[in-house]
Amino acid sequence: MASSVLVQPSTQFGRPRQLLLTAIFVCLQVAMPARLMAQDLLEANDAFDRGEFVTAKEVYEDLAADGDAEAQYRLGLMYAQGLGTDADSRAASTWFQQAAAQQSSPALAALGQLYLTGQGVIQDFKESLRLNEQAAQLGYAPAQHSLGVAYANGVGTFRDPIKAHMWFNIASANGYPAAVGSRQRLASSMAQSEVLRAQDRAKQCMQKQYTNC
Predict the structure, then answer these.
(1) Among 42, 125, 161, 200, which one is most buried in terms of CB atoms within 10 A?
(2) What is the pLDDT of residues 92-122, one digit of tens each?
(3) How far is it, in rounded angstroms, from Cα 147 to Cα 167?
(4) Are residues 57 and 101 in the same domain?
């Protein structure tokens, strides 16, 4: 008589099911802290907006230690402006640098401002320009305006009114109010042909997502 082999359901289906349950558990373990961090960040930002800087700072510090770029930027801002703590430009630059390493556009621009003024870092106009270029390429309008100022005044680079006007145009198109006045003041000292060239370059730059402008 031929012997029959009984395949136990636990052998045939148990392991795949166990692996699936393990994968789901791991995903939940990852997702839950992320949601909690996002909620903590929202609460910290609300506290910051209400002027409860000490409370906000405590939460930001925990989040920043876990690598949250926005919390790192906010801490840098608080140290730069003395909000909820003593003003400390070196501490500000440290937090801005950590956030900038994660391509935080506000942090890149803020760090660029510190290099422009030499606060908390050794003054370096070219580094300021480089950082603002990075932030501008990410679409950050304040950095785009700062680039316009740099090219208009020849700070960290050669003076280039057409390129300055181009960046003022772009920053204005992206909703940065100060760029409108900057563009108008610069245009008053430019030839009409130069203004038209700058406008054309602004359109091309925006089409290329702010790269190779």
Answers:
(1) 161
(2) 999 999 999 999 999 999 999 999 999 999 9
(3) 7
(4) yes
In a domain, 133, yes or no: yes
C-alpha angle with apex 204: 198 to 206, nearest 5 degrees? 105
Q: What is the pTM of this model?
A: 0.82
Structural domain that includes position 176: 124-213
- Let me know whether 76 and 136 are in one domain: no
Q: Indicate if 93 and 58 belong to the same structural domain.
A: yes
Residue 21 counted as domain residue: no
The rounded distance, in Å, linking the Cα atoms of 80 and 50 is 18
- Please write the tens of the pLDDT for every residue from 46-97: 999 999 999 999 999 999 999 999 999 999 999 999 999 999 999 999 999 9
Number of residues assigned to the chain: 213
Helices 69-81, 53-65: crossing angle, 10 deg rounding: 140
